[in-house]
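Can you please make up a whole protein chain along with its backbone structure tokens because I've never seen that pairing?
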Amino acid sequence: VVADIRELIEVDDVMEDDSLRFGPNGGLVFCMEYFANNFSWLEESLGHVEDDYVLFDCPGQIELYTHLPVMKQLVEQLQQWEFRVCGVFLVDSQFMVESFKFISGILAALSAMISLEIPQINVMTKMDLLSKKAKKEIEKYLDPDMYSMIEDSTNILRSKRFKKLTKSICGLIDDYGMVRFLPLDRSDEESINIVLQHIDFTIQYGEDLEFKEPKECEEDKSALVDEYFQDHVDE
């Protein structure tokens, strides 16, 4: 660990401070804003990081990426320090096995992409925890046909307004191909390597070495996804 933000400030300390009296969410926001006002601490903690590969484990609260400028400020500061920044948006695959939840996950990913304005890799995590049935069900969400998903979603909706809104959202996602997910199974080394290759390609890590494109290119993506599920659903 190069830097631990708890050396600068802790949520528990903020919540226990009688003059602040914040709850969990308010305490987190206060800590992140305090952090944004003390980027010099981060710069000193990172030290000389030329050619180093630094992973920032960020809080999962979506409001930090949609309502507040803190994470955007962090990205801009890192870019000023000449970091090549890539966002990795993680969504629990167990949450994404229904069309409504999948659309919600896509909107959350889009919110982060729009807010941070950086290249972003979207990942479905914990694939190893899914049941065989869920693995088969979630396969269609990795390379989704949004128009068929519209039918799955709108048949449940009674409100014409919500049907129209859902169709617009699904159409936008499908027409522009704005969000796609990679499966991550921590028990499968190949799955981990595919995600890592995409991240490395995005930031052009080690560009002075031989140029490599990510193994899972768009043209053979569906074949690799099929191979992944063929190997794992039968287990």
User: Anything to note?
Assistant: Residues 99-116 form the longest helix (18 residues).
